[in-house]
Fold this protein.
Amino acid sequence: MGLLEWATSPWGQTVPIHIAWFLIWVSVIAGLLFLILHAIYVMYFAKPKEFANDASSAVPALPKHVPRHSLVARLFHWIMAASMFTLLFTAFLPKVGIQFNWVTYHWIAGAVLTVSILFHVIHASFWLDFWSIWPDKIDLEDAWRRVRRFFGMPAPPPRKFAKYPLENKLFHGVIIVCGLSVIFTGVFMMFRVRTIFFPRNPYLFTDMTWGLMYVLHGLAGVGLIALVMMHVYMGLRPEKLPITKSMIFGWMDRDFVLQEHDPERWVIDTSSSSPSASAPHTVEGRGLTDAG
């Protein structure tokens, strides 16, 4: 059983046409395995968190509700989430036997996702702290410390997190790869159906190019199944609920911030206690990964 399905073109060329659809279930099982193994690890093996830096007493007075995500960031997150779920359901439900007229819903959801991502890139580049979601040297050093301590090797405790823990940053990177792959291929695939954006032109590329495009689109799509399952699971875990709530209400409790985050790495603007306070380099958020 191969990973791809093939066909013969009118010119006798063997070309890929899409992924093998059993990969849907591979992705679902992979997502479930992650959920089960992570839950077992947290319940039976994870040790209490220990940080090297605990400078809570030296932090200036913070408001009870520390602003984290603006209304704009939160709207982006939920619009993106709605379009992502619509894309996954319309793409894969027909492949597992639930038949309906899915094509129109699929390309509309894809257009919404594309526009929302373009908006987010511009918003994050000019109004937010663009680099806060990318791993830095401290993240990598602390990751190595955690690995050594996990295996019982001598290492100092890791430092408290910046605005985003390393796992959020890594998840964000993987989502970027899968999301941009889906968007890039999906825009060109819209030439093969009738939409309001441009005339239908199924002869835009060769059969081989179209086939490879469908394969990349499918691989990124099934990858997103497992990633979304992981994201939802992590957002519902009790210890992650303060992060999830911040994507709904825009703020985090002061005690949670002081417990988990380093005020020297996430410099919080205390000039306003409003969740919608606009301090571009400190309080705005990234919608892609914060519930993870």
The two ends are 34 Å apart (CA to CA). The longest helix spans residues 207-236. Confidence is low (pLDDT under 50) at residues 272-292.
